[in-house]
Amino acid sequence: MAKVKSTKETAVNEFDQEIKGNSLGRDAWRRLKKNKMAVASIFVVVIYAFLSIFASVLPIYSYKEIILDHQHLRPSLTKTAGELMLEKKKKDLYFMAYKDGRVEIPAEDKEALKEMSPNQIWAYFYEIGEAGGIELNTSEQRKLDRMIEDIETELMFDIKKINYLSDEGKFVNIEKLSVGQLTEIYSGLIGASISDIMVQSEKEVTLQITNQTKVENDGVSDEEMARIIANELESITTKAKDKLLIATLVSKIANQVEDYAEDDLQAVAEEGSTSFPLTKTVSVNDRLEAKVQATKMHDRKYFFGTDYSGRDMLSRIIYGGQVSIAIGFIGTITSVLIGIVVGAFAGYLGGKVDYILMRIVDVIYGLPYMLLVIIMMAIFGRNIMNLFFALAIVSWLTVARMVRGQIISLKNSEFVEAARSMGASPGRIIFKHLVPNSLSIIIVFSTLRIPAFIMMESFLSFLGLGVSAPYASWGSLVGDAVEGMTLYPWRLLFPALAMTVFLFAMNFLGDGLRDAFDPQSKNQL
Amino acid sequence: MSNNTPILEVKDLKQHFPIEQGAIIKRQVGAIRAVDGISFTVNAGETLGIVGESGCGKSTTARAIAQLYKPTSGEVLYEGQDLVKLSNKEMLSIRKNIQMIFQDPYASLDSRMTVRKIIAEPLEIYNSHGLMKLTTEDIEHKVEELMERVGLSRFYKNRYPHEFSGGQRQRIGIARALALNPKIILADEPVSALDVSIQSQILNLLVDLQKELGLTYIFIAHDLAVIEYISTRVAVMYLGKIVEISESKALYKQPLHPYTQALLSAAPIPDPVIEKKRQRIILTGDVPSPDQERFGCYFYDRCPKRMDHCRTHIPPMESFDDNHQVACWLHIDKSKWPE
Questions:
Q1: Where are the strands (E) in chain B, listed by range?
Q2: A420: nearest CB among B68, B112, B176
Q3: Model confidence pLDDT, tens digit, residues A362-406
């Protein structure tokens, strides 16, 4: 059988070689590469995407870990949290000393103080105090000393794994054990009876389900709520319940293990000779052992500062970016997919189908879309999936109109007639000919649509309708930061900056793509 | 070459495009009579040329035959089967015998597809409907064979249409039309968008392909020289009607219909001496709009030889001799005129 000649056949002369075609897409890419702004934007977007995707494996602190001692620490590249805490405490104490009238300052400075912002005032007294100009009384000094000691010795424990020596003589992760076994272990640890623990855990699980249900069904009447909760408790499967029970028991055991580890390691820390972080296997009893990592709590560094609960702003911005960018992309993709399908069928089939679909679009267009989103969020509850859904449902309209227009202008061209003359079905014509031919404007539109989505999400979160704690998005971070804007400007600045840079990059990229896909464009490079 | 077995028969074909008014409830207020009752037969292996000025319904005829439009009335019989009445599925099995070549080689190829994909598309469609059973390798082989048959190097198959010249693109279009081994090719002004030198190449290619593959052409053009060169028979259309249909040589030698005479007299002659002596028949007025029903001869408004009778009676197609038919009262014996 005549085999198809391999494409790698050696060329004999210039007319006899495989010639790789230059698609319009590759042509556009070549033009895009010449646009410096667009290339820079691609880099920015790639970095953001990288940070968002790999957020969970990046060496950053947890975004939801609350350390109340670390409340509102200013960003610093060099100082540890402990040093900053001390600085903050000192500022506070020095200022109190001034208030008590124990500090003498020149008269002109006194006038100037009235004009200063709180942060400047604190800085002013801190300078005087550090130079030795402020005498602290003994109780204040004691407070400081205690704080310094705490900073030196306080540890944080991260329990990596708890193993249990099973009857077969093997160590197994306790998460894989059954409810009965866990209850037994826990009773062994705290010395309470198994039945008491069973009752207690059952109660806690019931409470968990109740709370969960309450959050999910916000705004219903009390009787209705009671009915829903009862229903929920009834309908839960044994398997799901066991899962919750196991989680509860594991966390209880972990708490106990942490206490053990604390007793064990605190002495080591106070001695001051070992270096941290320290990973150690702690044997609780002869059958239970845990791998624990201990770190000095106040050795942390917060490059972007912390928020009102002492959470790391850097990781909150990265995780917030994850949510914001995901909403931008997923929202755009969903709306573009719906838009393409609706627009393509309306445009290609024309007539009544077109008329009905476009009137639906017109009607939805007429509704104030933000109000629609807000209502939907209120009805279906506040969670990220509902936010995606609500935004996607109101934003496919423009895509549908745009695609329809493009399809109408293409559907009478000869290549479509050619496809019909060889028997291509409408579906094939739409998805193999018409959509690929309108793809360039769809891509450009989508790129410009992503920042719009992020803005919408941020707006909703800012209003408190979007993402809720412990999750964050750029919008919710900015929204949270507005309260303490003058005192803690970093809380507002960094998320706003992160968002602005990304939005700029997306817009430049969109502009670059538009120029690249349109060879007739005036700002051709 | 041509024998007398008709492969395609068109009977009283009408293609009217409705003019609609109203936003929600559409009502028809008129119709553009693009093709208004034409009949002809095409024999296997011959080339039927269709000429006429712009807007006379040539392209619509081709599209109605290919069932790209659903004809308003009439029959299109392919080997005795009426295409108008077929379901989509039945039509698909016949479609492969009737393929089209389009006028604009730039618009008729999808600019997002490589040449390979363009030529393979009809094969893939038939494969996906189970009407052909080809492997990817078969298709690849067939594409290369087709490209070489139409005079393109098979090494160009991964290129995109915008990387080719007009003539090469038209060759791609021809290769695509040949992919399903059709019996009839409807060529809708395949050379009018090309340079004169390229036109002859494409025409020769078409003639060669006809000889090799025994194709039947319905060839539409408004260039009389092109039609004379390629056609065995010629149909002249005016305002959606065929006014004269004849063996090519006879038509050019002795045009019978006043419109054909005017049309032929309009073609310039390359020899300047003869050109000076050429007597043009200049028609007055414009082609009337095809949006109204006519009860007399369609050419009445502009005919230099019109008679009163023409205004009220549509002339029937009458045989002048064996292979020459004309629709004009001048060529019908007065005794046969209806009252």
A1: 6-21, 27-43, 47-51, 73-78, 81-82, 98-101, 184-188, 216-220, 233-238, 241-247, 318-321, 324-326
A2: B68
A3: 998 888 878 888 888 778 777 777 777 788 878 899 999 999 999
Enumerate the β-bridge partners of residue A288. Answer: A164
DSSP-derived pairing of the beta strands B184-188 and B98-101: parallel
Distance CA A309, CA B147 (A): 72
Residues in chain A with pLDDT < 70?
1-19, 218-219, 269-270, 272-276, 469, 519-525
Q: Which of residues 402-421 of A touch B (CB under 8 A)?
A: 413-415, 417-421
Start-to-end CA span in chain B (Å): 43
In which order are the strands placed within the sheet that holds A288-296? A171-173, A155-165, A288-296, A278-283
- d(CA A498, CA A516) in angstroms, rounded, equals 27
From the list A234, A176, A174, the residue with the least C-alpha distance to A206 is A234
Q: How far is CA A337 from CA A360, A442, B58, in A?
A: 17, 10, 40
Cβ atoms of B335 and B310 closer than 8 Å: no
| β-pair type (B47-51, B233-238) | parallel
Task: Determine the distance in angstroms separating the CA of A419 from the nearest CA of chain B, rounded to an integer.
Answer: 8
| Residue A95: both structure tokens together | 């200022």
B233 interface with A at CB cutoff 8 Å: no
Distance from CA of B291 to the nearest CA of A (A): 22
Q: Do A423 and B95 touch (CB under 8 A)?
A: yes
Say if residues A391 and A459 touch (Cβ distance below 8 Å).
no
Compute φ and ψ for B35, nearest 5 degrees. Answer: -125, 125
Smallest CA–CA distance, residue A412 to chain B, in Å, is: 10
Helices (H), A100-163: 107-115, 118-130, 138-153
Q: Given this model, what pLDDT does residue A7 score? A: 46
Q: Report how far residue A197's alpha carbon sits from residue A183's, in angstroms, rounded to the nearest whole number.
A: 7
Residue of A nearest to B138 (CA): A4
Residue A288, both tokens: 């239970």
The minimum CA-CA distance between B322 and chain A, rounded to whole Å, is 34
Which residues of chain B have a pLDDT value below 70? 1-4, 23, 339
Chain A CB contacts of B99 below 8 Å: 421-422
Is B176 close to A5, i.e. CB distance below 8 A? no
The maximal CA–CA distance of chain B, rounded, in angstroms, is 68
The answer for residues whose C-beta is within 8 angstroms of residue A446's C-beta and 6 or more apart is A332, A333, A336
Nearest by CB: A24 against B108, B125, B160: B160
CB atoms under 10 Å from CB of B80, counted, come to: 8
Among A17, A413, A414, pick the best mutation site for testing chain B contact (most B Cβ within 10 A). A414
Residue B190 touches partner A, C-beta closer than 8 Å? no
CB A41 within 8 A of CB A506: yes
CA–CA dist A315, A445 (Å, integer): 31
Contact criterion met (CB below 8 Å) for B150 and B175: yes
Are the beta carbons of B144 and A437 separated by less than 8 Å? no
Buried b (16+ CB within 10 A) or exposed e, A419-438: bbbbbbbeebbbebbbbbbb
Q: Looking at the complex, does the CB of residue B122 fall below 8 Å from at least one CB of chain A?
A: yes
**CA distances from residue A76 to A119, A220, A345, A487, B38 in whole angstroms, order as listed:** 15, 47, 56, 16, 88
Helices (H), A217-308: 222-235, 238-271
| Spatial distance between the Cα atoms of A181 and A197, rounded to a whole number of angstroms | 12
ipTM above 0.85, yes or no: yes
The secondary structure element, H or E, covering residue A32 is: helix A24-33
Q: Any residues with CB less than 8 A from the CB of A51 and at least 6 apart, and which? A: A58, A318, A321
**A96 sits in which H/E element:** helix A81-99
Burial B287-313 (b: 16+ CB within 10 A, else e): beebeeebebbbbbbbbeebeebbeeb
